[in-house]
Specification:
Layout (H helix, E strand, L loop, with lengths): L9 E5 L3 E7 L2 E6 L2 E4 L2 E6 L3 H15 L8 E3 L7 H4 L4 H7 L3 E5 L2 E2 L2 E8 L2 H10 L1 E2 L2 E2 L9 E7 L2 E2 L7 E2 L2 H8 L1 H24 L2 E13 L2 E5 L8 E5 L15 H8 L14 H19 L3 H4 L2
Antiparallel strand pairs: 1-2, 2-3, 3-7, 4-5, 6-7, 8-15, 9-12, 9-13, 9-15, 10-11, 13-14, 15-16, 15-17
Helix pairs in contact: 1-8, 5-6
């Protein structure tokens, strides 16, 4: 629901998908809308259930990784919100927030996306074609689009509120935030990716790549924002995997492919999406959730 606001809380800012509110000095409310963007443009249509999929899938992974790394999540269910927050919310706000809001603790966000790549796709494929490397990681010659890499690599990127994130080498990241912190983030990012990829493979999904965000709180790293969702990852159906070309996916690629068929210059305003494209995009998000968690979204939201 684009343009939705929670009037009872202090609004801080909006991203392409998420809206951020301040609850108190130590806590925030992170709300995943049903907005969807492609080619850096937010579409005029919303995608039913998308925000709830992002929130509930993130919660799934936060729980799965809880012993590996602390995270900022404190609650997603309205009846688990603290009294000082629940008491402020109107019935309409509670209805909108159902399943799509995360009550989180504040931290100092690391100003880099921590990207792990296990396969050659997207900007990584483009860079490899030009240089034979990705973000300073030399790769074997002769790889094709969607090839599995010999091992997962860490390819950080600068964070951008608008426009594309910019891939950088770990050395650039280390120069900005320090070698020790960069090394910790690289090790943690790759470990999370490897564990997630192994689990997803058992569910019939290849995780091509994904990006994590981290923050520091009292000197301790914690995992924040969304985790291993169709917005932050490329999910491929393992049964259809065939290197040498782009793969079918559970992420926004379906929408991008549709937009590529239009006479649109990829500048705002974005075109209105047909109902079929909206419905199919929603179905892909829901299918990713079901395959990864083993549950239907409707079950989780009861």
């Amino acid at each position: 629901m684009a343009g939705e606001r929670i009037p009872e809380l202090k609004f801080l800012r909006s991203g392409k998908v998420r809206d951020l509110y301040e609850v108190d000095d130590n806590h925030l409310l992170l709300v995943a809308s049903d907005r969807i963007s492609a080619f850096d443009c937010v579409m005029p249509n919303t995608i039913p259930n998308k925000g709830q999929v992002l929130t509930q899938l993130s919660q799934f992974w936060f729980s799965k990784f809880a012993e590996l790394v602390p995270n900022h999540l404190r609650a997603t269910k309205l009846d688990e919100f603290p009294a000082n927050l629940s008491a402020r919310l109107s019935a309409s706000s509670r209805a909108y927030l159902h399943g799509r809001a995360m009550y989180v603790v504040k931290g100092e966000v690391v100003p880099f996306e921590c990207v792990a790549r296990g396969y050659l796709a997207g900007s990584g494929w483009k860079e490899y074609q030009q240089t034979g490397a990705i973000c300073g990681h030399p790769l074997p010659a002769g790889l094709v689009e969607s090839s599995q890499l010999p091992e997962a690599i860490f390819t950080p990127a600068t964070k951008a509120e608008t426009g594309h994130d910019i891939n950088v080498s770990p050395a650039v990241m280390a120069n900005a935030i320090g070698a020790e912190l960069t090394a910790r983030l690289e090790e943690l990012t790759l470990r999370l990716y490897r564990e997630a990829a192994a689990y997803a493979a058992s569910r019939g999904i290849i995780i091509c790549d994904t990006k994590f965000e981290f923050a520091l709180r009292d000197g301790e790293l914690m995992l924040v924002d969304e985790v291993l969702t169709p917005d932050s990852s490329r999910f491929w159906p393992a049964a259809l995997y065939e290197p040498g070309h782009p793969q079918p996916s559970f992420d926004k690629q379906y929408l991008r492919d549709y937009l590529e068929t239009l006479d649109w210059d990829k500048q705002p305003p974005a075109p209105i999406l047909p109902e079929e494209v909206v419905a199919n995009t929603s179905a892909k998000y829901l299918e990713a959730f079901r395959l990864l968690t083993g549950r239907e979204l409707t079950e989780v939201l009861r």
